[in-house]
Design brief:
Number of helices: 4
CATH class of the largest domain: Mainly Beta
Largest sheet: 8 strands, antiparallel
Helix content: under 10%
Number of domains: 3
Distance between the termini: 60 Å
Radius of gyration: 28 Å
Shape: elongated
Strand content: 35-45%
CATH architecture of the largest domain: Sandwich
Number of strands: 37
Structural class: mainly beta
Length: 470
C-alpha cells in the first residue's frame, strides 16, 4: 500500500491539520496584522457609530501592522491604550503630533513649532476631510430647506431642487439665525431615529462659519449670473458663475465683501478670477462646489476651473447660505449644504505643548467625547499601618462613577488604577493629593490604524455600515 493511499484513508488527519492551520493563521492575523474591534461609545460619531441603547455598534477592522512599518500620522483614526487605564483600548483621531504647540480655538485646530513662530491653522488631508464634512439636509426632505428672500415670484422649491425663473434670491434655513453645530448633523438618516430621543434635534451651541455648498445647475439662455453667497460674520464670500447671457469676457470669480465695521485683519483681498473667460452653456447641467474651510475659499465646476483664495481669520462665525440668480432662470438639482466639525474647547486643555513621540487625540463627536481635552489622574495617597503610604493614580474623568459602599462597618471606595487593577480602599485611609493632567498618548501605546467598518448590516432597517474609515 502506498503512502498516498494510506493518507487518503485517514481524512480525520486532513481535517485536524486544516483546522490547526486555520487557528494558527487566525491567531497570527489577530496578533500581528488585523483585528476586529467593537465601538462601544459615540465619541467618534458620525464617523463611527457606538450606541448600545440603540443596538448600533460599529465593528471595525484595525491594521496592526501599519504602525510597525510606519509612524502614526495626523488625521489617522487610531486604536490605542487609554492612558488613564491601559487595560482598555480607545479609538480617536490623531490631531496633534509632537513636538509642537497645539491649540483649539474658534472651532478649529492650530499648531506651531514653538513660541517664536506664528500659529497656523491645521487643514485636514482630503481623505480625512470627507469624514469631517457633515450634511445639513436629508436625501429627500419632506419640504425644501430653501426660502425665497428676494424676488423669486416664479421660483419653485421641492426637496433639494429649485426651479428658478427670473431674478431672485433664496436662503438656506432662513428661519434660523445661523448654521450651528447641531447634534445629528451628518448622521446616516436611517440611524438618527434609533438614537437617544432626548438628544434628537438638539440645537447647537456654536455658530459654524466653515460651510460648503454644492449641487447641479443648468442655466437658461437668458441667464446673466448665478451667484453663491456664504456669509461668515459681516463678511460675504461671493462665488460668481457667468451665465450664457453674461458679457463675452466674463470670468468666474471669488470676491470677499466686508460689510459694516472692519476689525483688525479684515481688509478684504482682491477678487480672484479664472485666467480665461468662461460662461455656462445654455441647458447644460454642471456640478458646482463653493466652500469656506479653514480660512481658505474654494470654488470649482467639474473639470472647467478651480479657484482658491486665502482669507484672514474671522472671529465672528454667524453664518448663512444664499443662491442668487440674475436673468432668465436656471434649474438647480441635488443641492446640499455641509458644515465642518466645530471643535469645542470645553475640557481642561485648550492650548498645550506636545512632546516628541506623543500624540493629541480628539473624537469626531466633539460635543460628547472623552479625549485629550480632559484626561487627568486623581493622585491618591493611601495610608498604611506601620509603613510608608502608597500613591495610587486613578481616572479623574470617571470619579463620579464610583459610589462609596459600607464593608464591615467602614466606608470603602472602589478604585481602578492606571493599569486596570481594582481595589476597595477604606475612605478614611484615602487622601486625594492633586490632579495630574495626562492629555497625551505616547507612541508605545498606539496599537493600530482603523481601516474599515464591516458591521452592522441591516437592509430591512436601511442600515449599511460598510465603509472605509477616513
Amino acid at each position: 500500500m502506498t503512502a498516498a493511499v494510506a493518507h487518503r484513508r485517514r481524512p480525520w488527519r486532513d481535517n485536524i491539520e486544516a483546522m490547526t492551520m486555520a487557528i494558527v493563521m487566525a491567531l497570527l492575523l489577530k496578533g500581528f496584522v488585523v483585528e476586529a474591534y467593537k465601538i462601544p461609545t459615540g465619541s467618534m460619531q458620525p464617523t463611527l457609530i457606538g450606541d448600545e441603547e440603540a443596538g448600533i455598534q460599529d465593528r471595525i477592522l484595525v491594521d496592526k501592522l501599519a504602525y510597525v512599518i510606519g509612524e502614526p500620522k495626523r488625521w489617522d483614526v487610531a486604536v490605542f491604550k487609554y492612558p488613564l487605564n491601559t487595560s482598555q483600548n480607545f479609538v480617536k483621531r490623531i490631531v496633534g503630533v509632537g513636538p509642537e504647540e497645539f491649540r483649539i480655538h474658534n472651532g478649529d485646530l492650530w499648531n506651531r513649532a514653538d513660541a517664536s513662530q506664528p500659529w497656523r491653522i491645521l487643514r485636514r488631508s482630503a481623505r480625512a476631510q470627507e469624514s469631517a464634512w457633515l450634511r445639513l439636509d436629508l436625501d429627500d426632505p419632506p419640504e425644501s430647506s430653501w426660502r425665497v428672500v428676494e424676488g423669486g415670484e416664479r421660483w419653485e422649491r421641492s426637496g433639494r431642487a429649485i426651479t428658478a425663473r427670473g431674478d431672485g434670491i433664496v436662503g438656506f434655513r432662513t428661519s434660523n439665525s445661523t448654521v450651528q453645530d447641531r447634534t445629528f448633523d451628518g448622521y446616516p438618516e436611517a440611524i438618527v431615529p434609533l438614537l437617544n430621543a432626548d438628544r434628537r434635534g438638539r440645537r447647537g451651541a456654536n455658530p459654524v462659519g466653515d460651510l460648503a455648498l454644492e449641487g447641479e445647475a443648468a442655466a437658461l439662455g437668458g441667464t446673466r449670473w448665478i451667484r453663491l453667497d456664504l456669509r461668515e460674520g459681516h463678511s460675504h464670500y461671493r462665488f460668481s458663475l457667468p451665465g450664457p447671457a453674461a458679457p463675452d469676457d466674463a470670468r468666474p470669480s471669488i470676491e470677499v465683501v466686508v460689510l459694516g465695521h472692519r476689525g483688525p485683519n479684515e481688509e478684504p483681498p482682491p477678487p480672484r478670477t479664472t485666467e480665461e473667460p468662461w460662461r455656462l452653456e445654455a441647458g447644460r447641467s454642471v456640478r458646482f462646489r463653493a466652500q469656506n474651510l479653514d480660512d481658505l475659499l474654494s470654488f470649482s465646476v467639474e473639470g472647467a476651473f478651480a479657484l482658491e483664495q486665502e482669507i484672514p481669520q474671522r472671529y465672528d462665525q454667524e453664518s448663512a447660505v444664499r443662491i442668487e440668480l440674475e436673468g432668465e432662470g436656471a434649474d438647480f438639482e441635488d443641492i446640499m449644504v455641509y458644515r465642518d466639525i466645530y471643535y469645542r474647547a470645553e475640557g481642561r486643555t485648550q492650548t498645550t505643548t506636545i512632546p516628541a513621540g506623543h500624540y493629541f487625540m480628539l473624537g469626531d463627536n466633539t460635543r460628547n467625547s472623552s479625549d485629550s481635552r480632559e484626561w487627568f489622574f486623581d493622585v491618591h495617597r493611601i495610608a498604611s499601618d506601620g509603613g510608608e503610604p502608597r500613591i495610587l493614580r486613578t481616572d479623574g474623568c470617571r470619579r463620579d462613577d464610583v459610589y462609596p459602599v459600607t464593608i464591615d462597618g467602614r466606608r470603602h471606595r472602589l478604585l481602578v488604577d492606571e493599569f486596570g487593577e481594582r481595589a476597595w480602599i477604606p475612605s478614611d485611609e484615602l487622601e486625594v493629593l492633586r490632579d495630574e493632567d495626562v492629555p497625551f498618548v505616547p507612541r508605545s501605546m498606539v496599537q493600530g490604524k482603523a481601516l474599515a467598518v464591516f458591521w452592522p448590516l441591516d437592509p430591512l432597517e436601511g442600515i449599511y455600515r460598510l465603509s472605509w474609515v477616513r
